[in-house]
Amino acid sequence: MVMELLLIVLTYLVFINAAGLYLMGLDKKKAVMKERRISEKTFFSLAIAGAGPGIYAGMRTFRHKTLHKRFSLGIPMIMGLQVLVILEILINL
């Protein structure tokens, strides 16, 4: 039971982080092409849902939104808070 749950969570994290990375690259392409962009709300919602590492990797890989303090500080802060929550949960098991 625990192993199945762990597999589901890990699969979810792989897919949502791949989506975050992809969308960051897509948004960079849209910015260069002067097309309609992906909203910041979408990126922050994905980060809260677990895609922080993928979005952060996309920021670094595509050199996109790295000068925006909301992103350069906000995404790592979300990831840090998520780590603290996970640690708290694990400690209290």
From TrEMBL:
State the InterPro entries in the record.
DUF1294
Residue stretches spanning the membrane: 6-26, 38-59, 71-91
The answer to keyword Membrane applying to this record is yes
Per the record, the domain of life is Archaea
Give the UniProt keywords, A-Z. Membrane, Transmembrane, Transmembrane helix
- Pfam families of this UniProt entry? DUF1294
The protein in question is named DUF1294 domain-containing protein
